[in-house]
Specification:
Elements lengths: L4 H19 L4 H5 L2 H24 L1 H4 L5 H13 L6 H10 L1 H12 L6
Helix pairs in contact: 1-3, 1-7, 3-5, 3-6
């Protein structure tokens, strides 16, 4: 059975909602000193990007409505495959400046789907 687009949106939203909880009120300095937090945040961003990548294959028109969708998927690829050169400052910046806006956009798209 294939997944519906809203499933990928839900997976994305759940992962994005974890990011601020994992960061708590950490500063960049505290984040850079906390490998466990880095790994947790990076994993959630990777999950969100992967889910959106799957959504792009399933429903390109819906994916096109996600702000910076291609950039998010590309960032996921850096997280998954570019770990040797990963810039943790860039991850922190994305986690603290982009996640909230993206979460709002995903919630709005989910409102278009019927609830059971």
């Amino acid at each position: 059975m294939s997944k519906q687009p809203d499933v990928y949106l839900e997976l994305t939203l759940r992962a994005l909602e974890r990011v601020p909880r994992f960061l708590a009120d950490r500063t960049l300095k505290a984040y850079l000193e906390d490998e466990l937090c880095q790994a947790a945040v990076e994993r959630q961003l990777e999950i969100a990007g992967d889910a959106l990548g799957q959504l792009r294959k399933l429903d390109p028109e819906l994916f096109a409505r996600i702000p910076e969708g291609p950039l998010i998927v590309a960032f996921r690829n850096v997280l998954a495959h570019g770990y040797a050169t990963l810039d943790h400052r860039r991850v922190f910046d994305a986690a603290t400046t982009k996640v909230a806006t993206l979460s709002v956009a995903i919630r709005k798209l989910l409102e278009e789907f019927p609830t059971d």
